[in-house]
Every structure is written in structure tokens, then in C-alpha cells.
Amino acid sequence: MDRPPADPYQRDCPSRQVLDRIGDRWTVLVVGALSDGPLRFSQLAARIDGVSQKMLTQTLRALERDGLVTRTIYPQVPPRVEYELTEAGVTLQEPLQALENWAKTHMPTILTARQQYDAALPAVNTP
Amino acid sequence: MDRPPADPYQRDCPSRQVLDRIGDRWTVLVVGALSDGPLRFSQLAARIDGVSQKMLTQTLRALERDGLVTRTIYPQVPPRVEYELTEAGVTLQEPLQALENWAKTHMPTILTARQQYDAALPAVNTP
DNA sequence: CGGTATCCCGTCCGATACTG
DNA sequence: CAGTATCGGACGGGATACCG
């Protein structure tokens, strides 16, 4: 194989860019929300609590650009736009699901660890 | 079970915080770098290309706070500090590995999709 | 060696207003 | 309904300097 090794530990490795995409807050949630089937823009917005219209649009555009989501416009009045995971998007959904499950499973442990860590700190800001 | 459902789609769900931690650029890489065994601070810095001292410290502190990494100081001159994944940290390493593999596998496809998407755009900034 | 403290700039992102 | 455009505050994160 003559392709350069995909080593994310190197600054300029393209897989860094991929990880950066995953890195943003909303990508994981959007992909998760679409895992049950296509949804309209407004349905996504309703399902994902706290996302702004701007961020939802931005995230969806990025996913579309990466070929992970398709955007279908139904020429009606009022317009209807549906988003759906592509084949590649579905494959992403699997590792993300694993991550989400890990988060759900270990969340209590982590929260406890945080409290202990914070409790052991010198009491700053307590005059 | 009387614990509230861990639904990341709700704004105030604690698992959002967990996903946010994963979300930062360096956590994934640090955990990956530690998967082969404990490393010193300088070794981590050398291994992860592009990370600043500040960010490495910050990431390690966050991981330590969450109980995913232990920090061991060997009282010597000059000092030596080693970081190692905890049991919980090792369990995280697994889903992250899956994500990293996904990134490596689908990176070429994504890069191609991006080029096509960008090429299809109206030529902005070309007066 | 392994940090902490400070400065400072870029970007993220929410709020708001407007359009097809 | 599903966006785009613009503004502005918050914050991430790099560079630098200094400490135990």
C-alpha cells in the first residue's frame, strides 16, 4: 500500500480533520437523531434540545459535505426538507452508538470522581 | 431504577458533559497514546504532534478529574511524572479505538466527498 | 522536567433580523 | 418552513515568561 499511514498523532494527518468533525458538540447528536430514519429540519431541531437554528444548519451542511447525510428538498409550499443518513453515515452511527453507550454507562462513576476530585481541592474563592 | 434516564438529547443531561469531554480535540489522542502503557508528560508531548503544553496539561487534568487517568509523581530531581489509564480509562479506550478506526477507514471517502461538494459550489470570491 | 500565570487573538456560537 | 446574514460576547487555545 503506497498510501501515507493514517496516523492521527501527526498534525497534518487528514484523520485529524475527521476527528475534529466528530469533535463538535452537535454532530454526534444529529447522527444519533437520524439513526431511526429521515427527519425534517424542524423535527431535528425539536428532538435535539438546545441546538440553535444556526448550529443545526451548520452541522447538517458539514455532514452533507462529508457525504454522511443527504438533503432532500420537496418543492412544496411551505417547503419540506428531509435529512437522511447515507450508507457511510450509517456506518458512523455504530461507533458513535458505542461511545454514547459508554457515556451513559460510566457517567455516574465519572460524576462521582469529579465530586471527589473537586472536594479534595484547596477551597478557592471562599473568602 | 429511579435514576433519571440518560438522554443526551436533553440539554441538561449529564451525559452531554461526558460527550463534551470527548469532544475536545486532544482527549481522544491522549487516551489513545496511553493505551500501550504509562507515559511521562514529555513523552506524551512528543508523541502527540501539535499539542501545546497548556492543552496537554489541561486535558490530562480533566481526565484525572474524571477518574480516567492517574497521575503519579516520583519525587526525584528532576521530577518525573507518569500518566496511566485507570480501569475506567481502559474501557473508554475501546469505543475510541472504534472511532479512530472508522476515521481511518472512511477518511478517503470523506475527503473525496468534500472535494466534489466544494467543486459543485458556485464560485464565490472570484470577481 | 513539569508545570502555572498571563496575554491575546481567532473561532465558536447564540440572538436577532430578514428572505424565498 | 427552512433557511441566510450579521453582530457581538464568550471561550478555546497558542505564545511567552516564570517557578519548584
TrEMBL record, chains A, B:
Signal peptide: none annotated. The keyword Cell division does not apply. InterPro entries: ArsR-like_HTH (IPR011991), HTH_HxlR (IPR002577), WH-like_DNA-bd_sf (IPR036388), WH_DNA-bd_sf (IPR036390). PROSITE patterns: HTH_HXLR (PS51118). It comes from the Bacteria. PANTHER family: HTH-TYPE TRANSCRIPTIONAL REGULATOR YODB (PTHR33204:SF37), TRANSCRIPTIONAL REGULATOR, MARR FAMILY (PTHR33204). This is Transcriptional regulator.
